[in-house]
Protein: Class I SAM-dependent methyltransferase
Organism: Tahibacter amnicola
Amino acid sequence: MNKQYDRAYFDKWYRDKTHRVGTAQTLARKVAMAVAMCEHYIGRPIRNVLDVGCGEGAWFKPLKALRPDAAYLGLDPSEYVVSRWGRRRNLRQATFGQLAQLRFDERFDLVVCADVLHYVKTAELKRGLGGIVDQLEGLAYLEVYTSDDQLVGDMDGFQRRTAQWYRQVFAEAGLQGVGSYGWVGPRQAPWVTAMESASR
């Protein structure tokens, strides 16, 4: 049976105190870090954010608290998420792999894909990465966990891949690591100094 990202799933992993692995404070710090890193590379406040595999759009509120004028677009395959939160948080239904074909009116300063890629099958992951790189203006925040990490939480469908595997696949897609889950694409890479880079 396929994994269901329905209300019961989000209630369990995001609201049930016995299962959830993050807090609102942890998320706010993560969002602040990603925004600061992005703005460092683009040299101005962010104007827009694409959140891939956004779930219920958890990044929406802390992002708006930091940058009220930044446009936010969330993509998620869950019918529940889009029907429940789509209009209020600007969420649309799409899988990670569909990024290979999906294009929008402008590129995104910040692309977020948090706690998603380690559940995506290899062929779909490689397809979707090309879309991220093509639509990336500034920084991609790709929070991914590996077989090298000690993990708690939802392990159903977890793809056991090494950190080296991800680094190679990201590099082949045209991404350069700058640390703390941050990756820049070809538009920003020429300005990354040797000691900023986590890939050299």
